[in-house]
User: Fold these one by one.
Assistant:
Number 1:
Amino acid sequence: MGQFQGVLKRYFFAQTLPFDVGGQARFGEAAKGGGEDELPRQAAALLPILRAQKQPVVLVGHSYGGPVIVQAAIDYPQYVRGW
């Protein structure tokens, strides 16, 4: 997270709020019949941060964060301006 925060500060000229989903996703679990709720669960973890913002936000995700932010945009469109 620390290295990524430096990238955000250097290249993005807007307020950034880094968020760590707290552990790695269980890749392949859905294919085995489990983990179907993983993306919605992790997207829901963003909800308190989204609600605290004064206006809709642009979400940016890296690696597995990409699908997480897309899920958040689908589930909570009222808080998201773009992704």
Note: The helical segments are 2-11, 38-45, 47-52, 65-75.
Number 2:
Amino acid sequence: MNKVKNKRAPLYARVVVDGKRVKIALRKWIELDDWSDERGVARGNRDAARETKHFIEEVRARLMQCYQKLQLQRQIITAESLRTIFWDPAKTNKVYAN
């Protein structure tokens, strides 16, 4: 499904754990001309590109925090559990009770 509207596309994070992957809709849009498919980052030095680059780094850091949180609590780490905690950190203890 192509979600491009007015030469803008939504940003997603893809998380893969043990071969299982999920997409996380980041609720942010980017101009197609400002995106580098090869590098997977925003290109350019305009304010919008810099903000997008910063946003993507924040998302990566937050995903790493979610991963570490699950690890510290000795929870089973899955792509689905990372997505759940990414959007609702309060569910950390409820993701897997095993």
Note: The mean pLDDT is 85.
Number 3:
Amino acid sequence: MDIEITHNSCTAVKVHGEIDIGNVDEFSAMLEKAAKDAQNGCLVVDLSSATYIDGAGIKEILRIYHRLISLGGAIAVVPSKMAQRILEILRAHELPGFKICDDFQMAIKALLSYTGNLQ
């Protein structure tokens, strides 16, 4: 698993490879760092290049979501097909401040709009 963190109008975490119980601690640490650094409380988790994610990875995304939302922020996920299905089953799209987007630019716009920081 490779993880990139970028900081622009929203902080973004892009994951390449597999997220599973064997590396979820690394994923969790990167989400923590990104959430701490997130400008405007906005965090994009880009899983479009993730080849696998298990329940441990999804749990970490939801944990960070709860932290951000408690601080007035929001999260957007750009899912892989596998992650999309899991998030649909969990009905994550019904959570306030949890956006599921088709691409990175859509995710940025959705978060900035949600948090009132649309530029």
Note: The first strand starts at residue 2 and ends at 7.
